[in-house]
Amino acid sequence: MSSTLHRSPGDACGESDVPMIHVHLTRRRLALLAILLIVPWLIAGFWPMASQLGRAAAKLAVGGAFGNGSAGSGTSPDVIQGNPGPWGHVDYRPLIIDLPDEFVFVPPANRPAIRWFFQGYSKEQALEFLRSSGVAAADLERLAHTAKWTNSLEGAAVEPGDELILGLDPAARAKIYSTLVEFPQNAQQMDPIWFRPDHVKQRVEDSPLAPQSIKLVKKLLYAQGDATLLFADFEPALRQLPDDPERRRMVKTLSRKETFLMRVKLDADSDVEALGNYWGVGGRRKDLIPLLSAARRAENGCRLNVIFLLPHFGRDHLYNHPYAATDAKGAKQDCFWSAFNFFNEVPDDRVSDMAYLRDLLKSDYYAILEPSQLGDLVFLTTPDETAIHAAAFVADDVVFTKNGESITQPWILMRISDMIETYSVRHPHSGPLQVKYFRNKSL
Known about the structure:
Strand order of the largest sheet: 13-18-14-15-16-17
Number of domains: 3
Shape: globular
Largest sheet: 6 strands, antiparallel
């Protein structure tokens, strides 16, 4: 290798005063120098990338089959750790289920006017109640003299009009609606949707609704207690929107249901036999033990989606909406039908008959103090012992539930406390709902 130091000759524009070093190399030596200079940089740059790719591939292999991430992760801010028990160690990842496009129903413009029914009231008593609830004097005057009233032995009914409904103060709306929702005659026009105050942004503000529609929804929210906001004015709100696409977006937005993915942690320390005994109740242990064992052997363990551990009925229905019945005499796919069929591969439609269900509960089940086994029944009753809801216990404080027979209600996983909140909305004055538990004698 030789080198000479000299001044570079001037370029076409004049002399240069910058000294330059010229190195003369053979081709072979030049290639060797390139290798020595470049290869260390390639190694330094590629090694962490390869390590990351390897970890990503392993995560994908585990996550694709069993959930998002390995057993040791589960620390994402949107993952909630559950309470350990015979079901193992569980966590929850929140989900919001949309209504299928096929089920989005926008009420036609010629629907009957909203009607408030006051059971056991006269017109004068209803007006006095509205006055005490905070309805403005001018609105009361219009209700008394120009609104359409219907009086019967059962009570008084009035058509207040969209303008009055949309203009109610939130406090007045809360007081009026907490009374109206107790009367079954108002059920079709008043089925409140409930929100936790800190979920309004996620469910409404971050929706595809136009800003004015979001503003309208928030204006119509009213409080029930300290931790619940309700919305009950579907039809008046929809009539304020500019076009059918926006009305469809509002129906979809307000029909969303909160639920979650539930996962069981499996790793080298997991007791597969104990987990098999819990999740395999009802004769399914032989099929779950191999799956649990395989998950336990996965490198770094895994988090197994609970849907793989549910009985056939649960796996087939969870996160789905029912099809509309083609036969008017078909079974009501409501909460009772769902809870009592939890272990049935072929659903028993007789449980849609409440008389049959009462006899079945008496003959095949016994009361327990609290749920601790997959499939235990969880009943909600009013203080007078009227059963208003049933669900099947899954694990921790989670149930498999369908909150009503409507096709807009999917089968979901839900915390018992949230389920109680959902049904308390419909019975605000009946007193605290009672929770009762039952277990099938054959399990």
